[in-house]
Amino acid sequence: MDSTIQEYLDALRGKRVAVIGVGVSNTPLIKMLLRADIPVTACDRNPREAFGGLIEELESLGAETRLGSGYLEGLDHDVIFRTPGLRPDVPQLQAARERGSLVTSEMEVFFQVCPCEIIGVTGSDGKTTTTTIIAELLKKAGYNVYVGGNIGKPLLAETPNMEPDDMVVLELSSFQLMTMDVSPDIAVVTNLAPNHLDVHKSMEEYIAAKENIFTHQCTEDRAVFNYDNEITRSFGGEARGRVTMFSRRRPLDRGVYVKNNAIWISGEDGSREVLPLPGILLPGEHNVENYMAAIGAVDGLVSDETIRAFARTFGGVEHRIELVRTLDGVRYYNDSIASSPSRTIAGLRSFKEKVILIAGGYDKHIPFDVLGPEIIEHVKILILTGDTAGKICEAVERSPGYDGANPPIQRFDDFTQAVLAAHTVAQSGDVVLMSPACASFDRFKNFMERGNAFKQIVREL
Prior knowledge:
Layout: H1 5-12, E1 17-20, H2 27-35, E2 40-44, H3 54-60, E3 64-67, E4 79-81, H4 91-98, E5 102-104, H5 106-113, E6 117-122, H6 127-140, E7 145-149, E8 167-171, H7 174-177, E9 186-189, H8 203-211, E10 222-226, H9 230-234, E11 242-247, E12 255-259, E13 262-267, E14 270-276, H10 285-298, H11 304-311, E15 322-327, E16 330-334, H12 341-348, E17 355-359, H13 371-378, E18 379-385, H14 389-397, E19 409-412, H15 415-425, E20 431-434, H16 447-459
Parallel strand pairs: 1-2, 1-4, 2-3, 4-5, 6-8, 6-9, 7-8, 9-10, 10-11, 11-12, 16-20, 17-18, 17-20, 18-19
Antiparallel strand pairs: 12-13, 13-14, 15-16
């Protein structure tokens, strides 16, 4: 902690501040600054009517607003808070820096003023579930826990309520990490695979952003990496802090691993069994990995008994292989969080039977080659919708073993029609899995809206 939030606000007084992005992540920041008598210009590319009465509320508190297509033009403020979805190298921000502006973010400032220990979680897949498991385990162990970042609520305005003995658990995206020059006390990287290449210029840039979660640690900090992922395994030689690897595929002399149908951990004090795999309520091998990552993070903070008791009852996070209902012997699962091929592959492997898969969505310019063979192996009927339907279809058709008919492929422009088609072909004993392998932005605001749409359709069948 470099300063308290009050000291930071005092230092801002007399300066002109711009906040880019008026939404869930930045509205609490804007209100906090205004209540501290700091002049704020709230900037957003969306028009006024997109916000309901929020813009009028902020203006009543004293904010200036700059909305619409020219929202980034002429930025000359002393301090500019960048929204995570905006690249830090857009010309308008570069020009502002040249004029002397300091460009920062809500998350960067939070790290400066947070008075307690921070656990940060990132990765291409599994970070929300891992973050949630870590936070809930700490709560069960008696800690006062704040959850934020990519999930929960923005925490900067909460720092006056935090005590040194509290714990903060953050899910951190590559967009949040791109410009970070400080790392959490405990850093977790679940895995890495191509993702968000519609925003990142290259896979190398994506990896470099993720690396910021541990590259600024000190020797007393802890870094937890997936040994089974080639990219994250390589991080072990780069980290400054104490490294804990986890592996589902092989025992480790120092780390978390699977042996005798249980999760074990090895370290200076020897090896011990922590969690029997049959004691994990969440289905799927990927959730075994999520638990291993969480165990690596909370070792020494949470007892093994607490971990076992929690795993027996934790049913998962909404939109992550979420059982919506069973109708006429057919189980319908919402896996809307699956916005990448690797996450959909994990979902497919969670079921013993072949599934009826609903996939497709917004094109993030990532390849679907790895998904094709998995669909052939795990899918009974493939139902495609969204902008990437054609690309996924081609990936299946190009895969070795595809005979032109198995699985049968259906395509629909309309999402509702796709869900109804799955219902029509499903028979008792089948699983219908909505796991898109793509982002949602071609049809929906976000993956939550897509998942809720699926659930509503299914519940009305």
